[in-house]
Amino acid sequence: MSRKIKWGILGAANIAVKKVIPAMQKGGFCEITAIASRHLEKAKAASANLNIPKIYGSYEDLLNDSEIEAIYIPLPNHLHLKWSIKAAEAGKHVLCEKPIALNSDEVKKLIEVRNQTGVKIQEAFMVRHHPQWLKIRELINAGKIGKIQSITGFFSYNIPDPANVRNHVDWGGGCLLDIGSYCINLSRFVLETEPKRVSGLIERDSETGIDKLTSAILDFPNAQATFTVGARLVSFQRMQFLGDKGRLEVQIPFNIPPDTLTRIFIDDGSDLYRQNLETIEFSAVDQYTLQGDEFSKAILDETEQAISLEDSFKNMAVIDAVFRSAESGYWEVPNKL
């Protein structure tokens, strides 16, 4: 039997108790050993429901547990930097929900802490571990749709409740950091390069101040990527990649279901009714299971993790530039590390 990394969970957020922890418990290299919450009853409830042996009423107490090797952080966005640093300084490897910080300067601090402590710190872009995205990049690199020239993305939901964590602007709420980050990350991942400049347009919610509707253009060296994300729209998600010989459409690009197959479609453009589509199906897998196992294996094997902090810096630098562009009305250049 392979050795498993002993994990501690900082916080009992819904994404942790409903998606990530159950998925990691199915993996071959993750052992969820402890959970902490500032509200002890929440930790006790999660422990009982998910069979987690250790319970803590403070994050510090969990970090002081010498048995714990790695920490998963599902806290609100504004707490990601603080607790990632504390976990790393306690000698724990860190898998932190995206966005791993509120801006690229904060990611620089994480890189410094990683270099000082020697632990692994990774942003939890679970989609980067799913077979469909690995296959998409492979197909595009192989010229399946010819020379890629355009990427379009759309991601939206409708959560108007001002108490929801996504609607606290001071906590890093808003749709660009929350879901626009996926469109940016996957465009960069597939093209394997960085945009030279970006342009952004933002509409803010009058009640909460968050960006509720954001669109952007990313000017890559050999392609253009555009996306729109919204926090007060009907729920929808799609990404498309267009080349001079074909178009690739991703049916469910982000919230990929763990219990049913998913598809990508390849269209050669010969039929506007799309009756000649080539369909590639992917068996049901849980991208959170893959994420946890691959990070754990990187720890065990002392190998490079799937997503480096340098990659996270570049992604956040693009987000920063979109925010700046929306304010200035001009093209903005992402900061360099």
Task: Describe this entry's structure for a reader.
- The protein is an alpha/beta fold and 337 residues long.
- A hairpin with a 4-residue loop joins β9 (211-219) and β10 (224-230).
- α4 runs parallel beside α5 (104-117), α5 packs antiparallel against α9 and α7 packs across α9 (309-328).
- The model has no long low-confidence stretch (mean pLDDT 97).
- The protein is built from 9 helices and 14 strands.
Radius of gyration: 20 Å
Shape: globular
Number of extended strands = 14
Q: Looking at this structure, what is the CATH superfamily of the largest domain?
A: Dihydrodipicolinate Reductase, domain 2
Strand count, sense and barrel status of the largest sheet are: 8 strands, mixed
Percent in helix? 25-40%
Secondary-structure topology with pairs:
Blueprint: E1 5-10, H1 14-25, E2 30-36, H2 40-50, E3 54-56, H3 59-63, E4 70-73, H4 80-89, E5 93-97, H5 104-117, E6 121-124, H6 131-141, E7 148-158, H7 175-191, E8 197-204, E9 211-219, E10 224-230, E11 232-243, E12 247-250, E13 262-267, E14 278-282, H8 287-301, H9 309-328
